[in-house]
Write a structure and sequence with these properties.
alpha+beta; Fructose-1,6-Bisphosphatase, Chain A, domain 1; 2 domains; eight-stranded mixed sheet; 7 helices; globular; binds 2,5-anhydro-1,6-di-O-phosphono-D-glucitol; binds manganese (II) ion
Length: 302
């Protein structure tokens, strides 16, 4: 297969400023990944706005992204899972970004896959996911991969260590397989809403699907994007809004799964159609193969 670099592939993106920002974000991962070993067992940082103990690496990566976004001159505001209020730079920069700078931080110590999730908007937040210009995620696994959509197809790249190629195309116009093979769920099964627990049984016993769960949304999502099926962090009995963050995690990933022919839902509607004034809101999250998500939404509705 001819080696296509991310830079070459981004020439197809009509919005040249967005293409430049995606390339900048890809470049940042070189320095980010190099930080991991020395912060693997780092002491916990302070509590974040969700009352979760932020890892030192959450704080470091957040600060690194903010500094690099400021230098790029392309970003006027950063909304981050790790910031109590958005940080703002020059008003005439074209983009507002949402970031989960380090997704799966409970997996740092155990050296499981971790990632980053980024949404890129021209419009101000809060808005709906339909106004996304582009969204992407990076997975720091055995390899560093980057998956993006700028509205036309979903494309995956792997970080090459040698030569000028920073990222090389692995697959373009990815389509979520139908029917899907794998399923994974976050949270404690004892707290899942009963209708969801029944659906899990259905996937196991009737659909004969395989359980694949790594505890990092990016990793669990990536498996569903490639093998089809479903990842869910469902509504919980004691927490109907679930755990995952609508703007920092749900919307950017819903954009990717839907541009790849899959579906997202909060149990009722696509995450991209949720009108929400609170940038820090949580949402129940179901993403995956179209038919399976439609079946789930139908069962949750009964
Ligand atoms: P983050 O590290 O950005 O807070 O994200 C962690 C999230 C997500 O990656 C994963 O799906 C979920 O937390 C797992 O939560 P549980 O440990 O409650 O299952
Ligand atoms: Mn996360
Ligand atoms: Mn995070």
């Amino acid at each position: 297969m001819p080696e296509v670099t991310l830079e070459e592939h981004l020439h197809e993106v009509k919005d040249h400023e967005a293409a430049k920002l995606i390339s900048e974000i890809a470049r940042m991962s070189v320095d980010i990944r190099m930080e991991f070993p020395q912060r693997m067992a780092a002491k916990k940082g302070e509590e974040n706005k969700y009352g979760e103990m932020a890892e030192e690496l959450d704080v470091w990566t957040n600060n690194f992204y903010c500094e690099e976004f400021k230098k790029s001159g392309l970003v006027r505001a950063v909304y981050s899972e790790e910031l109590k209020t958005p940080v703002r730079f020059s008003e005439d920069a074209p983009f507002v970004v949402t970031i989960d700078p380090l997704d799966g931080s409970s997996n740092i110590r155990s050296n499981n896959p971790i990632g980053a999730i980024i949404g890129i908007y021209r419009k101000e937040i809060p808005t709906t996911g339909r106004s996304l210009v582009a969204s992407l995620y990076k997975q720091y696994g055995p390899m560093t991969t980057l998956v993006y959509t700028a509205g036309k197809g979903v494309h995956e790249f792997v970080k090459f260590r040698k030569g000028k190629m920073r990222y090389c195309l692995v697959e373009e116009n990815i389509r979520v397989p139908e029917p899907g093979k794998v399923y994974g769920m976050g949270g404690s099964p004892l707290k899942w809403i009963p209708k969801f627990r029944e659906f899990v049984k259905y996937m196991e016993e009737e659909k004969k699907m395989k359980l694949r769960y790594c505890g990092t949304f990016v990793g669990d999502f990536n498996q569903v994007l490639h093998y089809g099926g479903m990842f869910a962090y469902p509504a919980l009995i004691d927490k109907p809004e679930g755990k995952l963050r609508l703007f920092y995690e749900g919307i950017p990933m819903a954009n990717i799964i839907e541009k790849a022919g899959g579906l997202s839902s909060n149990g009722k509607i696509s995450l991209l159609d949720i009108e929400c004034e609170d940038p820090d809101a949580r949402t129940p999250l179901y993403v995956g193969s179209k038919e399976l998500i439609l079946e789930l939404v139908e069962r949750l509705r009964r």
